[in-house]
Design goal:
301 residues, FAD/NAD(P)-binding domain, seven-stranded mixed β-sheet, 6 helices, 23% helix, binds flavin-adenine dinucleotide
Length: 301
């Protein structure tokens, strides 16, 4: 099939790119390997996307999908398995074996939070387990929370949540934190209780998180803590593994792209969480989607 633009990923950035590119009169396909909406569909409540005081992640995603389709974007539910961006005519191979040809591509594959890896972790996502302090921190006003991680993000998250929560623990598997002096000073000047050389070994709870067991990795000692929330800050994994090696990534795998969403390859643009940037939120993903689509329009004209 031939399209003017193929967008890889049907999360907020891909759907927004679909809205803009379709409204500009281009033929657009959005390839999504799971379900439209991306990561935000895991959020029980979104309270920081302008125009909705509160909306469920699924409802927000469905509104974006509806709008993209009503503008003319075609959803293709399949996985992009390989790409060939070596010519002006770009070729995208899907896991089903079909091929899509287009003249511009928008990479919008997003990122996934790195998980702790506990058996019941998935069950508690949105029910006490969160991977985004900026998104969910304010929901824990007056509650007890543990943050997992040992880098700048984990410390920043713990300090941020400590503004709302009644008690914040920070658990790290090593003795030393891998953070800047500024972050460490903020941590040491706070009321956050630091637990080093330890990992969460069990999440307790029925429908919602009620507590965790913490295991000391040096002496195997276990202690139980009653809690309402677990914030995991052990990194993100950009979903850039399915595209060709010729697209430039940074050392973590994020596609290198500036504010204009261009990449190192002419006609290939990048939008949303998979792009190198600091703030990964719905509002920044949708913003990228608009910019990438407009840049694709410019490229095609
Ligand atoms: C639990 C949770 C709560 C959050 N809460 C908030 C919040 O309250 N407010 C806020 O602003 N942000 C929140 N976020 C962050 C927000 O969801 C992301 O910043 C946003 O979804 C990024 O959009 P995106 O389109 O760039 O990527 P994604 O949402 O990650 O979408 C990328 C899509 O690409 C698809 N894809 C990947 N690879 C392929 C492939 N090879 N072929 C086909 N499809 C592919 C994926 O299946 C996915 O659907 C939250 C995130 C999580 C996980």
């Amino acid at each position: 099939m031939n399209y003017d633009v193929v967008i890889i990923g049907g999360g907020p950035s891909g759907l927004t790119a679909g809205i803009y590119a379709s409204r500009a009169g281009l033929s657009v396909a959005i390839v999504e390997m799971r379900f439209a909406g991306g990561q935000i569909t895991s959020a029980e409540n979104v309270e920081n996307y302008p125009s909705f005081n509160q909306i469920s992640g699924v409802d927000l995603a469905m509104k974006m999908l509806e709008q993209a389709e009503s503008c003319g974007a075609v959803m293709i539910y399949d996985k992009v398995a390989a790409t060939d961006f070596s010519n002006d005519d770009k070729v995208i191979t899907l896991a089903s074996g079909s091929k899509l040809n287009c003249r511009a591509v928008i990479l919008a594959m997003g990122a996934e939070a790195r998980k702790i890896g506990l058996d019941n972790e998935d069950k508690f996502i949105g029910r006490g387990v969160s991977y985004c302090a900026l998104c969910d921190g304010a929901l824990y006003k007056g509650k007890r929370v543990i943050v997992v991680g040992g880098g700048n993000t984990a410390i920043g998250d713990a300090v941020y949540i400590n503004k709302f929560a009644s008690k914040v623990y920070l658990v790290h598997r090593r003795e030393e934190f891998r953070a800047t002096k500024v972050e460490l000073d903020r941590l040491h000047n706070s009321t956050i209780e630091v637990i080093t050389d330890s990992v969460i070994s069990v999440i307790h709870g029925d429908k919602m998180v009620e507590g965790v067991s913490i295991k000391n990795v040096k002496n195997d000692e276990i202690k139980k803590i009653d809690l309402d929330g677990i914030f995991v800050a052990i990194g993100q994994v950009p979903q850039s593994q399915d595209i060709g090696k010729d697209v430039l990534r940074d050392k973590s795998g994020y596609v290198v792209g500036s504010e204009d969403c261009t990449t190192n390859i002419s006609g290939v643009f990048v939008a949303g969480d998979v792009r190198t940037k600091h703030v990964r939120q719905v509002v920044t993903a949708t913003s990228d989607g608009a910019v990438a689509a407009e840049m694709a329009v410019l490229h095609l004209s």
